[in-house]
Write the structure tokens for this entry.
Amino acid sequence: MSILSIITTPNPILKEISKEVLVVDDNIRKIFDDMLETMKHANGAGLAAVQVGILKRMMIVDISEDIKVPSNNPIFMVNPEIIYMSEEHIVYQEGCLSFPGGFSDISRPLNVKVKYLDYHGNKKEMEATGWLARAIEHEIDHLNGIVMTDYMSKLKAQMLLKKVEKAKKNLV
Ligand code: NI
């Protein structure tokens, strides 16, 4: 396993739409293993492949650090598709590994149901709520080239990008 470098804004790849994975094979699992190590190293609760420069529809979520949830973490998802979204939304502060130091209140559906292929290529369906739903929705957005600033007013997005710019300078 190796730690990959995480792409941060501004970078046009973050706006690209990732491509469907045709076969879940060892190559895909190797990418997942590297993504998991990268995500843990960065203390993230989720990571989409595009964030490490790979335009494939694959992502990991693991909110077990934030909330103690039963067993099946981390969750590896290939070709995830939302098949239900609640009309009820909830506003909560979220961040993104591609926007270091930038946090914003974002409104998202409270509950989702998603179908996907797992680490072994098995078909799965999952219902999620709260933090887990939010994490899944955030990562699926990445696969569609959507990032958190797309939910914000122009002014708020500019302010957030300035914070990220400063945070990135301090990291270097
Ligand atoms: Ni993100």
